[in-house]
Amino acid sequence: MTTDPRVLDWLLESDPALRWQVERDLVHAPPAVWQATRDRVAVEGFGAELLSKQDADGQWQGGAYFPAGYFGSAESKSPGQPWTATTWSLKDLREWGLDAAYLADTADKLATNSRWEYDDLPYWGGEVGVCINSFTLANGAWLGADVSGLATWFAEHRLADGGWNCEADEGDSTRSSFHSTLNALRGLLAYEKITGDTAARDVRHGGEEYLLERRLMFRASTGEMVGPFVTHLVYPHRYRYSALTALDHFREAALHDGVEPDARLTDAIEVVRAARLSDGTWPQGTPLAGRTWFDVDAPEGEPSRWLTLIAMRVLEWWESGAPQRRL
């Protein structure tokens, strides 16, 4: 993929949480360079600001998935949900590349002080929702909590068609969801990469096959696009599925597994290519409704640094076609 140097310069003029990934994935700088930038996530910009919001008990806004006092409040009747509680804050910090050492006592504090809003369940034991457990699995592995039981949970709750659905445990669905399945896969991959535990690898590969059989976009039953969300590219994506978010997972999984890109990703790749603007950037979609701590990307319709980074690294990987393993 031909890259306009002006786009790279624009991407490099960004927060350390994004810039270190540009240096690693697009500039291909030596590890010492991008790691030095990554180390700055804790002390400046988005990472430092979000770290400053943590409560003394290890939580953010006093809640596991929702802020304390959310249910029954006026805010609970508004569209969307707040993205400011503990799970979402940890997810952001982990994905921005924060060194877990800056949260050295957080795992123990959450084990003592945090309970899920569903049935008052203990935090590191997980909940009943696939997406919640996906985030908890990855966050727990990152912070050094024992979440091996959650890794097993995904094998036990995979549906007959090969994926997962957050509504399955409530008896509302027996069909897998693209959203839930991708979140499960991302959690399982993060767990394997961080811990080295490969016990759930076959389960992950099976879930990946569910999406690949549908070419990341289409219903198995009719061949129709599964929904408009597939082409809705937005950052932060939170839990939402899109062709780009799915491709970024398959890129990371292929690099980890040392395999070539799968040809069944072609349709999703074309969606990403089609979304590119004439200046070589990708525009921000409609943000998910709900309160945030602060903005981390462009307003709707304007060029998005995060989407541009993700799209460019996906296309570069696809076009290179060579199997690699990142150590």
Characterize the structure shown.
- The model has no long low-confidence stretch (mean pLDDT 95).
- It is globular and about 50 Å long.
- The chain is built from 13 helices and two strands; from the N terminus they run ααααααααααααββα.
- It has helices at 5-12, 16-27, 31-39, 45-51, 86-95, 106-113, 130-143, 148-156, 178-195, 201-213, 243-257, 266-274, 305-320, and strands spanning 282-283, 303-304.
- α9 packs parallel to α11 (243-257) and α11 crosses α13.
- The chain is mostly helical and 327 residues long.
Give the topology.
Layout: H1 5-12, H2 16-27, H3 31-39, H4 45-51, H5 86-95, H6 106-113, H7 130-143, H8 148-156, H9 178-195, H10 201-213, H11 243-257, H12 266-274, E1 282-283, E2 303-304, H13 305-320
Helix pairs in contact: 2-3, 2-13, 5-7, 7-8, 7-9, 9-10, 9-11, 11-13
Q: Mean of the pLDDT scores?
A: 95
Number of helices: 13
- CATH domain class name: Mainly Alpha
CATH fold name: Glycosyltransferase
Largest β-sheet summary = 2 strands, antiparallel
Distance N to C terminus? 24 Å
Largest sheet: spatial strand order: 1-2
- Globally, the shape reads globular
